[in-house]
Amino acid sequence: MRRSGPLMYLAHAAVWLYVLLLLVPVYYLLVSAFKDNVGILSAPFSPFTGLELGNFAKAMEHATLGPALLNQGYVTVAANLLTLALAVPAAFALARARGRIGVLVERVFALGFLVPGFAALVPTVMLSIMLGLFHTREFLIVFLPASAMPLSVILLTQAMRAIPRDLEESAVLDGAGSWHLLRSVYFPLSIPTLTVVLILNFLSFWNEYFFALVITGPDTAVRTAQVALPTLSLANASQYGVLAAGIVITLVPVYVLYVFFADKMERAVLAGALKG
Amino acid sequence: MSTRRWRDLAPLGFTLPALGWFLVFTVGPLVSLFYFALTDWRGLIAPRTFVGLGNFTRLAGDPVFHHAVRNSLVQLVVTLPVVIAGAFMIAYYLSLKPRGHRFIRAVLFTPVLLSAPALAMVFVGVFAPSGLVNGLLKGIGLDAAVRPWLAAESTASIAILAVIVWSSMSVSAVMLAARLNNVPAELFEAAGLDGCGHWRRMWTIAWPICRDYVGVVTMLQFLWTLFSSAAVVLLLTRGGPGTSTVNLSFLVYDYAFNQSKVGYSQAIAVMLFVVGVLGLLGIRRLFRQNY
């Protein structure tokens, strides 16, 4: 950077202070996860008070995190597959559609992106009761794709629209029908965007809290990891180490994904829905 | 129907499953919300009786609701300007590619990956009586400032605000930085040659260029503060101490699932939905590109 006035020094200082503010709680979380209570209280910031792995075992046991993680994985993967199964054909049709009705349908999805679904917490529970799926993971699996549908469809439609028409025309000349066209031209060519959508939905489904809380309820056999995690705070009020270990455990899948797909993940975040 | 018209429409059949899903699981519940708000209804499996606008008139005399309105307003008024202005300045700073900007970007990305429970649980540790903040204060000899942050009325709402800002400013900054990266560098260089400093370049050139995108980021932040903060409140303070940290979205959950006021809670949900939609429209108007 070029010449810097006093303002620039202030900017450096302010941004690095903010970076520090972001890192300190994360650092505190990580070191606490490996400490016993005495270590947390007597030397809160030291990374060297022995390596206490018991916290992780306790967290798994007290919050029955084992089944909870499996439930979370089951819901996340199944909901993700269902979202794709619904969104890919829709995007395919919208990308190729001409005329007003196609535009209208696309606008419905574009508006849906900003619908605050949280307001419908209770009606959604009523729907699950009506369908006989209250307190089941399966309701989450069919419900979550609806919330992800608008953005998934919009992103995939944009990607498929960018596919050159020539490719399609040569396939049509060879006698390909719609399904064949989708399978052999549109699907393979939109895989980069498909990956972004998959990651985006993985993050939002894995991290889903409120709907999981009211739908799956307190039953340890069906509740997800995000619902199980806060119970550690109540059960171990005086043991931050156990809670910290629990948090770390639920974060592992997300960070593993981040390590492998950092740039795709950033694109997913920029696509915009993660805050909702 | 003419064959040509049919040929244009038939492929749209592929959109029907997605559209149907969206209608059944998103639009349907939202519509029935407006009916539920007009009922007296004590529990999820209890019978409902239609009471018209009774729930809404009851809201007018409910001090907890008033408290929630005030808290939600304060949360919006404080976090929106702080987060958007802060994020924009960080984004501009990053666009100058200062030393360590890659590292900063990676750190800014950290809070994105935290789920609401993970975020709240991290801050349970931060604000606990023997937690991070008090540990730091003791470490620098400010024992007098040590306090139970979440259990005291004066500090609990400030703690909630801090968590909202902490978790969302960085994401907004990453998004805005990506937008600024697409601005041609010559624009800024020309301004630099004219002797225009960074402060003026940031607000008179970069801001107007990104105006519409800043609007989108503001909308997302608005939704986050209004709705997603419910999880932070629920998991950090449960609205307490007393009712000092209740906000509208938390109250919808609390009344419906903990206090057996389901119909009444839906009146609040309707208000929340309306505030949400009006707010989004307002923000869009405010940031409409006007050149």
Automatic annotation (TrEMBL), chain A:
Membrane topology (UniProt): Multi-pass membrane protein
UniProt key word Zinc: no
Principal localisation: membrane
Sequence intervals crossing the membrane: 7-30, 74-96, 108-133, 139-157, 185-206, 240-261
Pfam family name, one: BPD_transp_1
Gene Ontology biological-process entries: transmembrane transport
Localization terms from the record: Cell membrane
Name of the protein in its database record: Multiple sugar transport system permease protein
Keyword annotations of the record: Cell membrane, Membrane, Sugar transport, Transmembrane, Transmembrane helix, Transport
Domain (ABC transmembrane type-1) ranges: 69-261
UniProtKB/TrEMBL annotation, chain B:
GO terms for cellular component: plasma membrane
Alphabetic keyword roster: Cell membrane, Membrane, Sugar transport, Transmembrane, Transmembrane helix, Transport
Record has Cell membrane as a keyword: yes
Main subcellular localisation: membrane
Source superkingdom: Bacteria
Subcellular location: Cell membrane
ABC transmembrane type-1 domain span: 69-283
InterPro entries referenced in this protein's UniProt entry, alphabetically: MetI-like (IPR000515), MetI-like_sf (IPR035906), UgpAE/MalFG_permease (IPR050809)
Any one GO biological process: transmembrane transport
Protein name per its UniProtKB record: Multiple sugar transport system permease protein
